[in-house]
Protein: Triosephosphate isomerase
Organism: Thiovibrio frasassiensis
Amino acid sequence: MQRIPLIAGNWKMHTSLGEARALAGAVVSACEGLTDREVMIAPPFTALATVAEVVRGSQVRLAAQNVCWEEQGAFTGEIAPGMLRELECRMAIIGHSERRQIFGESDGLINRRVAGAMRFGITPVLCFGETLAERESGQTMAVLERQVRGGLAGISVVEPAGMVLAYEPVWAIGTGKTASEEQAQEAHEFVRNLLFEMYEKSIARQMRILYGGSVNSGNVDALLRQPDIDGALVGGASLKADSFERIIHFR
């Protein structure tokens, strides 16, 4: 079965409410008539309710930039899955390199987030990737295996659409450096083979693996031509309506 490409925009800690409303409206317009790909946007938590109103009834899927594993409780600063569902938010980015590198989130904590999201009907976008030092010392594949196996430990995937993975080499995020198509495909193929070991082949074959790392309008076409790259997790370029529209309409 052919995997449907997913273009995901991660707005990170950007946009006022007015900017979020305008940008979401532009994305909705850019997606009109599209049937062969999916588009997701992840605004900051403060803009989720505003953006939810804009994308309601459209083809654009709403995502959060993180999610807690608990339904409620004394978890200051966290957002429960049910709170997201109330806003018709059905996806969440988990384990982004900035959460790992800046905020110290471990594979174990990320695994709890993935499990909690799935338990409450939120589709995780599980991120993983190596630092420059790890790549230069030949540890790339070992790091990817540790993060993927750790993030998915004990996770049962019955419906492939209910889990998305995203390879994002840390050295390529926000730096303007992008993994070559060959480097990206090598990593994606390695992870695909890991999934074949972890899940039924029919499930692993259909699970989507996105590439994230300075994706822009100039490199998206070449990246998405690779057989195991099923979409893009876009940062800075998703904040500009014209550049994100070009990425959405990759060829």
Summary: The chain has a mean pLDDT of 96. The beta strands are 6-10, 38-42, 60-64, 91-94, 123-128, 164-167, 208-211, 231-234. The chain is about 40% helix and 15% strand.
